[in-house]
Amino acid sequence: LVTIKLLALYSSENNAALGFTKQPGNIPDVVSVKNAISQLGVLTSKNIILVTDNGFYSEENACFLIENEMGFLMRIEIDTKWVMKHLEDCLENVLDSSCSCSEKGYVVGVTKTVVHCFEKKNTNGTEHTLRKRIQLYFYLDTDKRTKMKADLSVTLTEILELINNGMPITGLSPEGQKLANKYIRYKTVRKNQIAYIDDKAVTEDCKYNGIFAVVGYGNYPQVHNTKLAFRTYINREHIEDHFRAEKQSVDGNTVRSWYGDN
Q: In 3-state terms, what secondary structure has residue 165?
């Protein structure tokens, strides 16, 4: 069965469709976005900012957009080496930030202006480095952070109770065994071995809970304001909701094909 990938560009301001393109289904998302932008002629338009989720970020795509002077806001994994370095430098500022970015106030953020060397491979195989000043946004979803730690605490408490009631670690589920080996420690009290939760290990592993990063480039208000960058980025969720509704409620997940002879 031949599969295709449909890519659509939408306005994040009014959800209006700007253009559609189709590509072979085996092309990764991170590659297809560059093809779509080129095919749709978006690069000839001015005052456009590309907003994407982290599935579309790559050094190659960033270089492509920068070289064509196209602004962007792209989510990036915080465990990316160079991003983590900057996050460590300003982690306290992120956790203590009072810059409320969401209407309900549960997302706060900070902006760090950095100079990053983007790397890409040329068509001849040689490597090319592009040094640019960009905005790196770190946002903290405080509700998500609290929930993640609370859920882990409940799970570990249940595991701890089972172990202290005589269940061997091998009797736990695979996930339970993994958590027990990571967070459960033992001490001897009056010749009895007692299991307990390693709170220090839990705190260390929860350090980045609820934090996500966005890379911004371009001389646009949306790229130089912490709150506006967040709201511009988060608006893409409305478009994703549209696709979700279409696939789940409007029979959009049914495969159809049309040929000239049928």
A: coil
